[in-house]
Amino acid sequence: MFTITPFTLGPIEENTYILYNGAGDCIIIDPGCYFGNERRELADYIAANELRPKYLLNTHCHFDHVFGNRFVHDTYGLEAHLHPEEQPVLQNAAISGLEWGFPFDNYKGPLHLLRENDSITLGKDELKVLFTPGHSPGHVCFYCAAQHFVIGGDVLFRQSVGRTDLPGQNFATLEHSIRTRLYVLPGETVVWPGHGEPTTIGFEKANNPFVRG
Ligand SMILES: [Zn+2]
Ligand SMILES: [Zn+2]
Fold this sequence. Notes:
Mean pLDDT: 98
Distance between the termini: 30 Å
Order of helices and strands: EEEHEHHEHEEEEEEEHEEH
Number of strands: 14
Shape: globular
Radius of gyration: 16 Å
Strand content: 25-35%
Number of helices: 6
Helix content: 25-40%
Structural class: alpha/beta
Bound molecules: zinc ion
């Protein structure tokens, strides 16, 4: 069974997730650690719980979600897993960070490409890849059917959705992703988002002002 630990990190309060199982193996999703103390916080948590990092996953590659990719690679030897359509987004992340006033050392290691319906397994536990573009061209969510949760990145937030006003973004595509990949999940499914508090699919279908179920 996965235990989910969220960390809110970086100058724009991005949610980083560590998922670990009973054997102490863990997955790091969207490491947004930007400042040195945040990198220590993540590393201290991993050390204190005697976790063995096995996978580095990115829902998408906006700079706030990849600030810590290089740190995770350098510290634990993990290589990034992301959708092929996020490769240009990752390549542009450092420039984009600089434009927003957040310079950082980008990840330059090997890439492992994720596609819809791929599964990432940690012992007996499994995450399935959902392809959910719109906020970013190769955005994916990681769905755990057995435990009714999804690591949602910047697709669906509590009573909000990911922004679609910048180049490479499209609201109709985002809405289609939400309707066909997320709103079809059981209502009790907990959405752990890239920003803000968790929510559920059922709550958003009833209350989300942007995409009503
Ligand atoms: Zn984003
Ligand atoms: Zn974000």
